Amino acid sequence: MHVDLDYFYAQCEENKNPYVRGKPVVVCVYSGRTEDSGVVSTSNYLARKYGVKAGIPITRAKKLLESSGAIFFPMNRSLYEQVSEGIMEILRAHSDAFEKVGIDEAYLEVSTRTNGKFEQAENIANEIKRQILTQEQITCSIGIARNKLVAKIASDERKPDGLTIVKPEGVHNFLSDLPASRIPGVGKKVEDKLGQMQVKTIAQLSTISPPILVETFGKTLGGYLFQAARGEDDEPVKEREQPTQLSRIATLKRNTRELPEMLPLLSELAIAATAKLKEESMTCKSVAIIAILSDLSIHTKSKTLEQPTADEKTIVNAAHELMKEFLESMPSAIVRRTGVKVSTLSKLTGQTDISNFLKV
Ligand code: DCP
Ligand code: CA
Ligand code: CA
From atom 12 of ligand 1, which residue's Cα is the shortest distance away? Predict the structure, then answer.
């Protein structure tokens, strides 16, 4: 089963700001250079009717939506991460094995709990939809098939709030007329090359011989396209391994050893590392700062916390303290890049822990 949340960031904004319902909604990544510079992260389906979609410049979106009453939001990643986390818990509970593949999608192995019966998988899918809607007011689209590839293509077939079941005997029919670009990994570049070979649909792709695919796309991609055109895929649903540490690194505006000059960036990195920690439902027991000096030498300084935490303030303060100590211990250090690393991670499990954790 592949589950993908519908117009995810925009749907989160609709829920948080109910007054926007019925209007085009656009979530923007402002670059900060001029007032409207930046790109669209995503938009709701109404905005998409005007041609506004992920990746287009904000200025273009504003023109397309002129006098439509559209509402523009800056990206609020921590909100979306919180909503996502609640949903992933629901999905995990309905799976034999669970693989999150992004903030808004996941694969669920359900073969064991359904005895391989598609009817039972359909029941699970409907139950998942109901729970996500009740708990997080979010709609999703689900694809069910005998492998990840076909399930993923199926989840994209009827959006929003779709459920598409492709039984093994139906794979060939399902795929045939779809454009080759519906195959995951087939972007603009591959699509263009296929176009030059007169290949538009998946059925047409399946007529191209392996040597030609390999010659055109290389061994890996060529081999993948050959199998994908036939709906073949034997990748297992992989439980993702838990990370043991997380870090965020960035370059300072200019080389410096002035603490006040570094603190804003250091705080930002600590906050980003904490956000990731929360996304993974984890805590850390150690915090470290990373300093890459003007001579490109790399230094770290770490400390162990009194107790495991995912508290932003604690982690930011620890990073500040460590950088202060580092600069004092290295009187000649001129810092070029800086980072924050959290380690000794552990997983928070159980519903009560997670809800407590969200209040932190
Ligand atoms: N995203 C982004 N920039 C992109 C694509 C996506 O910031 N170029 C973000 C915003 C999306 C989220 O990732 O809400 C999930 O991406 P999807 O491709 O699944 O798109 P949506 O969920 O927005 O829409 P759909 O209903 O088509 O799945
Ligand atoms: Ca989505
Ligand atoms: Ca997605």
Answer: 8
Average pLDDT over residues 271-290: 92
| d(C-alpha 84, C-alpha 74), whole Å | 18
Cα 164 to Cα 145: distance, rounded to the nearest angstrom: 9
CB-ligand 1 contact for 7 (6 Å cutoff) = yes
pLDDT, mean of residues 73-101: 94
Ligand 1, atom 1: closest residue by C-alpha: 41
Q: What is the mean pLDDT of residues 85-97?
A: 95
Q: Residue 349's pLDDT is what?
A: 54
Contacts of 5 (CB under 8 A, 6+ apart): 11, 84, 87, 104, 105, 132, 138, 139, 140
Q: Are 237 and 109 in contact (CB under 8 A)?
A: yes
Who contacts 273 (Cβ-Cβ below 8 Å, separation ≥6)? Answer: 246, 247, 248, 315, 340, 341, 342
Instruction: Please classify residue 282 by burial: count the beta carbons closer than 10 Å to its beta carbon, then call 0-12 exposed, 13-18 middle and 19+ buried.
Output: buried
The span from the CA of 353 to the CA of 348, in Å, is 6
CA distance 4 to 155: 7
Averaged pLDDT for residues 213-230 = 96
Could you tell me if 23 and 55 are in contact, meaning their C-beta atoms sit under 8 angstroms apart?
no
Percent of the chain with pLDDT over 90: 89
- Residue 75 CA: nearest ligand 1 atom is 7
- List all residues 6 or more positions away from 260 whose beta carbon is below 8 Å from its beta carbon: none
The per-residue pLDDT for 240 is 78
Q: Does 352 score more than 70 pLDDT?
A: no
Mean pLDDT across 270-291: 93
Q: Which two tokens stand for residue 223?
A: 């081999």
For ligand 1, say whether the CB of 187 is within 6 Å of any of its atoms: no
Contacts of 79 (CB under 8 A, 6+ apart): 12, 16
pTM here is 0.73
Which amino acid is it at 233? D
In three-state secondary structure terms, 259 is: helix
Q: Most distant CA pair in the chain: distance in Å? A: 71
